[in-house]
Design brief:
The complex is a heterodimer. In chain A, about 80% of the residues lie in helices and about 0% in strands. By secondary structure, chain A is mainly alpha-helical. Chain A folds into two domains: about 15-105, no CATH class; about 125-180, no CATH class. In chain A, α2 (about 15-50) crosses α5. Chain B is built from eight helices and no strands. In chain B, α2 (about 25-60) packs across α7, α5 runs antiparallel to α6 (about 110-125) and α6 packs antiparallel against α8. Chain B has one domain (about 35-165). The chains are: A mainly alpha, B mainly alpha. At the A-B interface, α1, α2, α5, α6 and α7 of A face α1, α2, α5, α6 and α7 of B.
Chain lengths: ~180, ~170
């Protein structure tokens, strides 16, 4: 931020404020979009919650999540289960509200949940989507002969990135623990 | 196929909910009500990050960084043409989609570069945006390790994408 500003003072001082305000306008537009998208998904998620499906999902995923995230609180596992399932379906925007709820439910017990929070961020930000719909759409509309040819490489690449991220996190955690001892 | 998946799941959800005597309308409304609050809390953080990115691009530092890093990237097997995408992907989702659009229209839809760029976009995530949103309203401060690890993961994904697009 500081570097960009100092460079801009010399190159384009008159553009600084107008760019910032323009970008802020874009963010307001983005946020209005987000209100709409989250309203739909949070409404649907509430129904999922009330029907007890999320409890069932959590029960189904209880063991793997407890092992990978190292927590055993039922409520936290429920939100993480919802978050992961939405991510798999490629519904990033549906995953966000449950991810935030998961983090909020964990923040009061940081000692126990620190690892789980880091893991949740790593998994969420290395992308675990099954179908690259945006890219396929773009390729198809540009007249590609075989837009779905990118599915397999993408799937392998995204699995690799997530697995690698989790792996590095585990090493980091070990390193930190041995430092504390 | 995939366009039927979500609607069918929704119908099943409503049928199942009615069987369980859940008030569908009330539940939807009480969930949807929270969305404004969520975005309200997240807005300042998204705004701050996007402003930084905009200034970074305007100042020309971003293209300078791309130029400086592209030898390193080509060493890792990432073509120079997509290195801007790899660099900006962690910051902005819509920005990287528009970079991808440019790449596709420049090199053609069946070109190696375009397919590579598509793989990179889909196998990575807007790390900074995700962390800003997730941590907007919490007391948790130290998330730098998670961000660094996620960035490493994304780079690995990008390298793998370039390699796999060559083979497959």
């Amino acid at each position: 931020m500081f570097l960009s500003l100092t460079t801009l003072i010399f190159s384009a001082p008159d553009l600084i404020i107008s760019t910032m305000i323009n970008e802020s306008k874009n963010v307001v537009a983005l946020c209005i979009n987000l209100i709409a998208i989250y309203a739909v998904w949070m409404g649907i998620l509430e129904i999922v919650d009330k029907t007890g499906i999320s409890e069932k999902l959590a029960k189904f995923l209880y063991k793997p999540i407890r092992k990978i995230f190292r927590i055993d609180d039922k409520n936290q596992i429920k939100y993480i289960a919802l978050n992961l399932s939405a991510n798999f379906l490629g519904l990033g925007n549906a995953a966000t509200p449950s991810g935030i709820k998961a983090i909020k439910s964990m923040e009061n017990n940081l000692k126990k949940t620190k690892f789980a929070i880091l893991m949740l961020i790593v998994v969420n930000s290395t992308s675990i989507q099954l179908l690259p719909t945006t890219a396929i759409g773009l390729l198809a509309s540009a007249g590609s002969n075989n837009p779905s040819s990118i599915i397999i490489p993408t799937l392998i690449a995204t699995t690799l990135s997530t697995v690698f991220g989790v792996f590095v996190l585990l090493i980091y955690d070990k390193f930190k623990k041995s430092k504390n001892e | 196929m995939s366009k039927y998946l979500i609607p069918v799941l929704l119908i099943l959800l409503i049928v199942y909910g009615s069987m369980k005597k859940v008030n569908i309308y009330q539940s939807f409304c009480s969930g949807a009500k929270n969305s404004i609050n969520l975005v309200y809390n997240v807005f300042p953080y998204i705004c701050a990050i996007m402003l930084c990115v905009a200034l970074f691009r305007l100042s020309g530092l971003s293209s300078l960084l791309v130029k400086m890093l592209s030898p390193l990237f080509s060493l890792l097997g990432i073509p120079t043409e997509v290195s801007e995408l790899v660099l900006l992907r962690p910051f902005t989702g819509s920005g990287s989609v528009s970079i991808l659009e440019n790449i596709i229209s420049k090199y053609g839809a069946d070109n190696y570069i375009s397919r590579c760029a598509c793989c990179i976009l889909s196998s990575s995530e807007t790390v900074f945006y995700v962390s800003a949103v997730y941590f907007a309203d919490t007391k948790i401060k130290n998330i730098t390790p998670a961000i660094i690890i996620a960035l490493i993961g994304n780079i690995v994904g990008a390298i793998a994408s370039c390699l796999l697009c060559r083979i497959i």
